[in-house]
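Per-record layout

source: Lucilia cuprina
name: Protein phosphatase 1 regulatory subunit 12B
length: 400
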Amino acid sequence: MTSLDIRNNSAVMKRAEQLKRWEESDTNQQPPVPRPERGSRIKFSSGCIFLAACLAGDKEEVLKMLEQGADINTANVDGLTALHQACIDDNLEMVEFLVEQGADINRQDNEGWTPLHATASCGFVSIARYLVEHGADVAAVNSDGDLAVDLAVDIQHLPMIDFMQKMVSEQQIDCAKARQAEEQQMLSDAKKWLRSDASEVDRPHPKTGATALHVAAAKGYTKVLSLLLAGRANVDAKDNDGWTPLHAAAHWGQKESAEMLLDAMADMDVTNYAGQTCIDVADRKMVKFLEEYRASNKRMKRRPSSQISRISDTIENHIDKTNTKIIRVEVRPENNKDHVNVYNILIEPSSLAFYPHMSLSYLHFISFTMRLSFHLNIDHNSLIDLFILPYTIILICFKY
């Protein structure tokens, strides 16, 4: 027998001994409690599978999933739908297929971009033309206040620039008015909330968790911000990332919004879920202002929201052509919060020496406060705050 044969026989014997030990080991024995069957370690959601099928251009699989109840407007974490992605990929065939299957042609992602916004920025004219012909909103505005035509700026995409400008002209779109539409809608909503249901002020967005105060702060909608703050909106409300309205104002460089929030006692030390304060996420130009504000340390103790009840302004818009103002004030006494005193106050601007921006001289303010205190039977330990907006006064009564 050769040495090679000896080594081979030895290896076979060792392997036989290993198998014998395995058969007799505890590891190989049947456990007293059956092991649960393990599924696959990685499971993808049906939404992910649907988006992947669309991305792959597998129409047959997409149709099958739609028949099984898949949502054609399913979006990823950024809010991008399959239609958004098909536009970005310049896949006209898939765009047509998705639209024919009922995809929302004006669905916005987390940044407010519609499929037309995405297409315009990429310069794909054939897709843009198809979208417009099938109902895409040329006047839609994203979170930055941009219309699709505003994103068609790349000099290499001259055909797209020409097409979008032509669409704006043909549809007679007032771009400036379109950019202000969101602010005007929010202003209207804020007034409605103050008149009827103040709880709506802090209602979070179902996807982002942001409140109206977050949006107004980030975009510099100061008139909206004034009304929301007057309605006692939560200045430290957090969205799904832990950002407060002050984080948003600081990050987007909205100095006036930030100052209004700070004056309303927004907490500069609140951190988001990444451990960042408003200064940490602030625009470079905002950092100095925020640090100086902190250093000045002039902030007063915040008044408990329980001391101030819901108020409403019956004026339909902030520019009222009539001379008479009717203000409704609701006061809940601290010793009996179930009891509400409602006052309808008639204000005549001429008697208060109103100036172009509704400013009051100190003497007129004192005189007005004394007269109002007398008529409302408010004692000397009460105070009236004036929140002055252009051509609108909102009065809030509270006790120290």
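summary: Residues 19 and 25 are 10 Å apart (CA to CA). The first strand starts at residue 311 and ends at 313.
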